[in-house]
Amino acid sequence: MIELTGIAKSYRIGTEEVAVLQDVNLRVAAGEFVALLGPSGSGKTTLMNIIGCLDAPTTGAYRLDGREVSALSPDQIAKVRNLKIGFVFQNFYLLPRMTALRNVELPMVYASRSRAIRRERARALLEQVGLADRVSHRPNELSGGQKQRVAIARAMANEPPILLADEPTGSLDSQTSQQILRLIQEINAGGTTVVLITHDEAIAAYARRVIRIRDGRVESDREVVPC
Amino acid sequence: MLAWEMCKSAFDSLVANKLRSLLTMLGIIVGVGSIIAIVAVGQGGQQAIIAAIDNPALSEAAIIVPKAILAGNVTSTAGIPAFSPADTALALATPGVQDVYSTPSQSDVITAGGKTTPVTVQAGPSFLPLIAQFEVVQGRMFLPIDSAAHRRVIVITQSVAKSLFGSDSAGVGQLVGLEGQLFEVIGVAKSTSTSILSALAPSLNVYMPTTTFMDLYPGTQNFELELRVVPGYDKNQVAARLIAVLDAKYHGDIFENAAGFIAGITNTVTTVTGIITTIVGAIASIALGVGGIGVMNIMLVSVTERTREIGIRISLGASRTTILWQFLIEAIVLTTLGGLIGIAIGWLIAALASTIGHLPSLISWQAALGSFLFSALVGILCGIYPASRASRLNPIDALRYE
Question: Which of A65, A207, B174, B334 has the most CB atoms within 10 Å of its CB?
Answer without folding.
Answer: B334
